[in-house]
Amino acid sequence: MASTMNIKPWFANLQGSGRTRVDLFSHPKRGIKVQGRIYCRICLEPLNKTWICPACDTAKKNFPHSERPVTPSEASAASSLNDESVRKLWEVLKELAEEVRLMKVRLPESGCDFKDIKSTLDKQAELSFENSERLKKLENLLETQNKQIELLSSENCTLKKKVSALEVRVNTSEQRLLRNTIEIRGIPSKQEEVPAAVVVSVCAGLGLKISSDDLDHVERLGPRRDGAPGAVVARFVRQSLRDEVVRQRRIKRDFSTRHLGYPDSDSRVYVGDAMTATNRHLYWLARQKRSADKVKYVWFSGGRVKCRRGDGLPVVVINSPEDLDVFP
């Protein structure tokens, strides 16, 4: 009732009458009810639905808990620590204090000076900083060199492709120069023989009558590594005559030295196109593929090595060793 008497004059002045009814609620969080309206019990501001205004509620929530007094229950809980734990903690602290004391005694005896230690640490920090800077420079240099290596690798690949294309063109040009030339292998060599007479004799054995005037150049190569006689290379004046000699040899499959008047020899005589060193190597590689049953047909015509995997399949022209990769 005393609280009611203290608040009543304020509300009486507010309403202009001394008959204002003030009801206080017993709960501390509730407000003050005056003539059916509710006012905040802290700042006496009118409220709508809540029992305390938002500003006072926020201030109350933000009140620091560290300043709150300790309750008797909390004090009794804090005093219930285990005596054994306290004793162990005290022993650990005593050991730590003893270690610190011994350290203070040993440092002067060892001759260590904190200034020297600090100076050494500063030098180490400087060296670490210098090494870090050097490492950054090396990383930048390595990155630059990696970019240069990638650029050079790309240029190298491009140059390899260009070189390969040029090699094919050079080989084609060299083979074109041999379009009037044939190679005759399997004829025994004689002392003081005339190579042109050998070619005329071979053509006569194939049923063709030619003279030395139809030949531009004839020579016999040196013996092979296995001791076999070297081939006779003949360049004709006309390509048509050269093609006719090759065609007649394909017709006469059993052509041998006995058709040329060699009674003591009966070895087969081969007449074929003269090939460049590159085409000869490609032809050998292609025959290796045939031996491995990768291709069925290998031949040389038109100045190029050609392969075919089987009957009815397309012909593959071999211009470089990479072209044989289609037959794995």
TrEMBL record:
<dbReference type="GO" id="GO:0046872">
    <property type="term" value="F:metal ion binding"/>
</dbReference>
<dbReference type="InterPro" id="IPR057251">
    <property type="entry name" value="FP_C"/>
</dbReference>
<dbReference type="InterPro" id="IPR018527">
    <property type="entry name" value="Rubredoxin_Fe_BS"/>
</dbReference>
<feature type="domain" description="FP protein C-terminal">
    <location>
        <begin position="276"/>
        <end position="325"/>
    </location>
</feature>
<dbReference type="Pfam" id="PF25298">
    <property type="entry name" value="Baculo_FP_2nd"/>
</dbReference>
<protein>
    <recommendedName>
        <fullName>FP protein C-terminal domain-containing protein</fullName>
    </recommendedName>
</protein>
